[in-house]
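Annex B. Sample input.
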Amino acid sequence: MFGKAFVKLAAGAALCVVGATACSHSSESASRDTLTANVGQYPPGPSGVNKPRVGVPPFDVTTAGGFSMSGDPNNLAADQMTTLLDQSERFAVIERAQLNQLLKEQNLEGIVRSAELAKQGQVRGVDYLLLGKVTNLRVKTEKKGNSFGLAQLGNIAGGAEVNNSDTEITTECGVDIRLVDPTTGEMMTSNFSEFKRTDSAGSMGVAILGANAQSSADIQLSEDDKGKILRLALDDSLRKSLPKIDKFLRNQPAKTADSAAPVTSAPPANNPPPASGGNAAPANTNNAQVAGKKFCPNCGTANPIDAKFCSKCGAKLD
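Annex B, continued. Sample output.
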């Protein structure tokens, strides 16, 4: 009799543990979705303005307090900002691999260093470069509270259990972004912002991998969570920059015809010459040279006859 009651009691306790764990995991998954729900969701930009072509070279990311990343944070930050700029729908954003190829083909690989324009130079196919720097990126415990000791199942670090739901953490860094004209080195718009967010690890949807029971102690996170925190900081910086960016877009200076030629269509194939004997574009040709113009085989833009690179897409011309 006693044995059966004990078995039932043990089974009920096991179900409670499983149920609590399932609820905890479900809550954490929901938090993860909620945390980045608004990332990349921006108010509409000004209407009736041209979208300048922008490329994003590698950022300069420095971390503090043991916050290290296994990958290259400079390229990761640039990749994330490229995506965020595109989602803002304010720029024609050059894909990062294409930007690298343009710089290589035009012998301009050394024009940019991390968050720095090393020298002036026209990058064909790009109107502006967005240079960025992230400083003192770190995550730390804000207070001891009841964060350590008996904790939820499965979060064990260094022999001590850590309660992600109760542990209050602070993420912080500084983000400096600048929109620069590479031909002149002129800074078109810039913004520096301090990102700081204090919340429980559970509410932020991050999992603490290791920490100690001291206030302001630095903690360890997964690489995915570190990337998420970096993305949140970049999103916050871009969001705060939008008023300045929109003002710039409304009043942006006109680019020269050489750096921002209008898009034109390549000569149509099998186009017969006019009866009057006028000059017609050669049929089905690449880099057709007509009336002192050279057409890009990639996008069809008309370029000066002596151009080596397309003024629209930056493709190499024969």
